[in-house]
Here is the input.
Amino acid sequence: MKCNFTPLDGLLLLTPSVYTDARGHFFESFNAKTFRQVAGIQPEFVQTNESLSRQGVLRGLHWQKAPKAQGKLVRVVLGAVFDVAVDLRENSETFGQWYGCELSDENHAQLWIPPGFAHGFLTLSETAITSYQVTEHHSPDHEICMAWNDPVLNIDWPLRRAGVTQPVLSPKDAQGIAFTELDE
Here is the structure.
């Protein structure tokens, strides 16, 4: 497994070794020993989530505040998404900064999102199945949804590449709060 450090401390882009032959391919999407050795992390996952999204669907930006903050290991099983993480750790040097990358069934890349980050993605392909393991159970009392189009964050979502001018949002995601409202 190859570990690429992103500009945001603790946020890692991981690419597994993929073994391909006439039958197809094989790779380990998670191995605790490898993660500890290569990435220096040892997450304890409590749940695996999976979503199916149509092209142009944007999910997020979702975040759970402490003490129920979630670490996430995100990968795409089918299709492609533009995946985004926003650093919301108050004492971080990169607080309020975002990082985005393409995750797909072709590149097999995974994004390790540590606790304290908001997360969202835009579906680029006709459909996409996204799977993510989390280190904490869902807690509606600790969940916050941030505005995907917050002008302070200024995330450069590839809407044109997703074939839309406005993304398809859930009612909750359409009501996300502004970055400046986080203190409240």
Summary: The mean pLDDT is 95. Residues 46-181 form a domain with the Jelly Rolls fold (CATH 2.60.120.10). DSSP finds two helices and 13 strands in the chain. The chain has one domain: 46-181.
